[in-house]
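Posting this for the archive.
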Amino acid sequence: MSTENRTKETFHFINNPQDTINEALTGLTEHYPYLSYSPAHKIVYRNDLESLREDHVTVIGCSGGGHEPMFSGFVGQNFLSAYVSGSIFASPTARQMFEAIKLCQTPPDSGKDSPGTLLVVGNYTGDILNAGLAITRATAAGYKVRFVPVGDDVAVGRRKGGKVGRRGLSGHLIALKCACAFAQRREGLQRVGDVMEYVASNVGTIGVAFDRVALPNSILTSLQPLPPNTLELGMGAHGEPGLQQISPIPSPKALIKSMITLLVDINDKDRAFIPFSNDRTQDGEVVLLLNSLGSTSDEVLASFAELAIEELEGLGFVVKRLTLGPLVTSLKMSGFGITLWRLPPKGEGEIMNREQALELWDSRVETVAWRQ
């Protein structure tokens, strides 16, 4: 049998595939008493939302299911106000997003001036279109909304991405961590949105997968695997084609070197998205995040993290903070991603300085899944 025709079956330990999101989110909110859940619209939200929305900018994350704990695991104190989930790997609808906006603001006819809402999605066509429709309805109804889509995948270069841009991976978590901490300080919608956009513009992600992911459209599903002894560099979070397939599989050290190069090489004009300079004394401090795509353990991530730190330090960078774990998964995909945040450079003209950025990053949260 040819490689192209090889398939295998993968088992999903679920009930009815149509019920997986509602069952998961219901269980989550029953286990964590500071969360509530609206099953009709698949919205997880903070229990204190009614009082929070009166004097704080609220922040909503929207995505398809299957990427948990994003974003359900990041709703809580000092982080997201609400999360709207679509079906597995499918955008939430415009109506779901509109209902979340209404939940996160005082009614326009209440006589109270709402601080407004920041709505964030990954850069995917369905999410963008549905968010646009929801915001149009919300604005017409008198709600205040700032919209920030995030694309951070450096595997999709400028030539390939074109007007569509890069795919959203785990970079928006870094930007959201800072923007939500900023919102907690009762900052206005304009400034909260500016912080979100600023951090997102200084973030890049590259992933690698050791196999593809099978959708749970039934208990047993077919999976078109990678060829033997092969990994795919730059595979997307839904199994989209990556930058290249590599065989034989390289050593961990060689793999990390390739991934870091894609993130920091400013001479690669097609992929030099993180605006590093040649002067490491100015902008050589970074935050490093290693994300499991589903089945990669913390122990394996930690070993890759050490290699990444060694590679970055060899290039003159200083890793100021490290976070690792299953943060943005792809069901049970075998693989991981590296996200790098360029901290604000020295000098004037930035939205915030390096100390302020780290202060936002270090702010404590009360959520299900964030690794402090």
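The mean pLDDT is 93. The chain has eleven helices and 14 strands.
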